[in-house]
Sequence to fold (329 residues):
Amino acid sequence: MKFKNLVIFILVVLTVFAFFSQVMAAETVVLKLAHVCAANHPYQLGAEKLAELVDQKTNGTLKINTYPAAALGGERDICEGIQMGTIDMIVNSMGVTATFVPEVNVFNLPFIFKDAEHFKKVAYGSVGEKLLKSCEEAGFKGLTFCAPIFRQPMNNVRPIITPDDFKGIKMRLMEVPIHIATYRAMGATPTPIPFAELYSALQLGTVDGNENALGTLYTKKVYEVQKYLSLLPVFSNGAVLLMGLKQWNALSAEHKQAILDSIPEFRKTVDDAYLQMEDESLKKMRDYGVIVDNPPIEPFVKSVKSVYEEYLKKNPEMKAIIDEIKQVD
Fold:
C-alpha cells in the first residue's frame, strides 16, 4: 500500500513539473538580434548589454540571442528578414536604414551635425523620435539611434584646411550619391572603388585620399599610406536599433517595457565604446606621425549648399526637420 502511494505521489510530482515546465517554455520569448560587425565591435557590446538587461528585467522570460559578423546576412538581408519575420532586431547603419526609411536620409546630409554632442542632442531628442516613428511605415519599430561618430577625410597630398584644399584630390568614396555630390561640391574628385582595394589603391596613387571613421582608418592601417587627417564631421557614421513592428506588437506590455527601459544603457554602451575607440585610434595615428588638423567647418558647410538644395527639391517636407536640427545648440 505504501509503495502504491509512493508511486502515485511521484507521478503527481512529475505531472505537475511537466505542466509548469510547459507553461514556462510557452511564456519564454526568444528574439534574434543580428548585425554585420565583428564580435568585439561596439554594436555587439551594445547588443550583449541589451540582452543581459532584458533577461534580468523579465526574469528570463524574454531572451535576445545575438548574431554578429553578418551571421544572418548583410544589412539589407537582415532588414528584409525582419520584414518577413524570420529575424527580429538589427543594429543597422543609417545608410542602409535610409533605403527602407527615406526620412532617415536627413541624418546622412553633409555636416548636418556639428560634433558628437550635437548628434546626441538631435538624435536622442524630439527630432530623433520623429524619425524613429517614421520607421513604422516600412514595418520597423525604431528604438534608438546611437554611435555619435563621423566619417572624416584623410589624404596624402596636403592638409585640408579650407574647401579649396580639396581641389584635384582624388577621394575614394562609397558609391553613395549624396557622398559623391558632397565631395564634388567641396572640390574633390570622387573616385568610387571597392573598400577591399583601398590600401593598394592608395599605395599606387590610384586615389589620393579616403574617408571613414577614425577607428576604421586605424584598424585598416591606411595611415601607413596617408599623411594628413582633417577632423571634419562630413558625414555621420551613426547607427539605429530597429525591431520588426509585427514582432514588437506581439510582445507583452511587460516585455516591451523591459526593452524600452534597457535602451539608455544599450545606447551608452555603444556610444562609450565607439568614442573610446575613436580617441585611441586618433592618438595612435598621431603617434605614428599623421598630421592632424581641426579646421573650422563653416567654409565647408557653405561649400555644400548645393547638396542641400538638391535634397530639398526632392524632399521639401524635410525642411522643417533640417531647420529644427540647426536650432539645436
Notes: The chain has 14 helices and twelve strands. The domain at 28-148+237-280 is CATH 3.40.190.170 (D-Maltodextrin-Binding Protein; domain 2). Confidence is low (pLDDT under 50) at residues 11-26.
